[in-house]
Amino acid sequence: MSREVVVAGAAFIAMYLLVEENEDENKPRRRRRWWKTQLYKKRAGSELMIDLKSQELSGQYKNFTRMSPIDFEYLITLVGPKVGKYDTPMRAAISVQDRLALTVRFLATGDSYTSLQYIFRISKQSISLIVPEVCLAIIEAIKENILVPTTPAGWKEISKKFEELWNFPHCIGSMDGKHVIIDAPIHSGTEYRNYKPFFSIVMFAVVDAEYNFLFVDAGCQGRISDGGVFKDTIFFKKLEADNLGLPLAETLVGRNKEVPYVLVSDSAFPLAEHIMKPDPGDFPKGSKQRIFNYRLSRARRIVENVFGIIASVFRVLRRPILLQPENAEIIVMTIAHLHNFLRKNSESQRYYTPLGSFDREEAGQIVEGSWRNEPNIGSLLPLRNVPRRAPLIAKHIREEFSDYFCNEGKVPWQDRYC
């Protein structure tokens, strides 16, 4: 090939490229389809179809938020100042309303981050930042809804309700714990592996007579013995140090022996001066041990109902939580705070726990709550019962309660069930 032909070919290619470049400059540029700030500004807020100005409730709204529009708007005003601002334009364009809607939907439905990505048009990376941040903001904003009484008068108010509603005097709370199943944490070995064996964190709670949390602790490693879970809580340490402000021991009505104010629990916890649990064994019908166990179970059933409600309503608890333990702890604590928040707001209480949600009694006959109809209550596993040697003083206190329930404190229907 001659030199002249090569030069001519190169000149032709150069001229062709120049012409194409000029034509491209005159063409209108194609609009980018994804990841533009305008996409977030125009987004309607997902399938929730939230209209905070309207008082009309739809079944879809209830399913995705578990609360009324009024309380959702109120929660926005509480959470908004506590939610930080992102440094990237795409994340900064996500409104507080959308962040809260995304987080509440995640708790209510248990949708994966992948599903939420397509619904809200937000990347999974952003969602993984938004959910824990908003959950922490919710806890901070409504933390006053879970408060442990600090005075004898406060504890006596709780005890009065237990006696009025559940016929158990001197009761200051019903307590229990659950293993919350989580995904195997990275490089954790067997730290979170429980007795089942699954990986879990433990949720411990004390509730009052009206199905509200008094104290919640979450995050204890699943491998720790169930007795150790309780002893690791601030509540136990204050109880042991006599720093809870409990009332002094008093006599039961018609009795002479003073008994302390107590918490009721199942067999997973130790029998102690301030903790009553069932009398172990199989007792004949009509015996005082059987009567005591029946009366204690009526009061202890409150905490069982609370765990059942949160697992049936906040469906993120109905499957293993696929998050690291620290974020799973935040999720559990947020649900506990939202439970009290919704229970104490009359507008949302009708949608969160309508009539028939909890177990109830009619002339001593137990009518099971609607939460028990759920086919699978979720990833909440009971604590393991561990036999322990109880102190003699605790046995004497249980004996006094047993005698009281058979005599001065007898209820008309107990003989039919004991």
From TrEMBL:
It is found in: Nucleus. The keyword Transport does not apply. Its cofactor is a divalent metal cation. It holds the Pfam family DDE_Tnp_4. Residues 175-340 form the DDE Tnp4 domain. PANTHER family: NUCLEASE HARBI1-LIKE PROTEIN (PTHR22930:SF269), PTHR22930. This is DDE Tnp4 domain-containing protein.
